[in-house]
Design brief:
224 residues, 5peptide_repeat, Pentapeptide repeat-containing protein, 16 strands
Amino acid sequence: MVRRTAGGTGVRGARRPEVRLLSLEPYDGPGLEPDGDYDGLEFAELDFAGQDGGGARFMDCALTGCALDETRLHRARVLDSVLTGIRGVGTDLAEATLRDVELVDARLGGVRAHGSVLERVVIRGGKIDYLNLRGARLKDVVFEDCVLVEPDFGGARLERVEFVECELKGADLSGATLRDVDLRAAARLEIARGVDRLAGAVISTAQLLDLAPVLAGEMGIRVE
């Protein structure tokens, strides 16, 4: 737990993205293409299920209500963009880069985002089941008012990450490295594995009491 300092908590807050989308052109193409270049476009209510956009770049774009079931976005770059109401199961974002992005009211399951890089990203509202962020790098990321079911942060690096009114259910922190991670405002904090990796995070007194049985088990302490 981060040591409190006079006049503050000793934890640095995340820098949020400032996305300002100007006039966008409606996308009327046939679908996503590998290594495609999409700039200043609006994707509204489109079905990209099963399509391959690996290595594509999205700059100053808005994706609204799009279906991303089994969509391949491996090593894609999403920059200065807003994704609202996207949905899908098995979306492949492995080794992708998200920078200055707002993800709002997403409904996703089984997202493969291992090895990805998230920088200045806000994930607000919605629900994401089984989010795989193993080996990912998160910097200046805010999870706000959303539900994360069994997210996997194994081996990931988290720096200046905040959980605000976010439900964190069955999180895996095995091998993760945390620095300036603020969990105090989480609506629910449930860590299934890797509770020993909380060094570098700040939690509340109430959360510490809730985690006491897990911490005791991790340390081999028998409580009777």
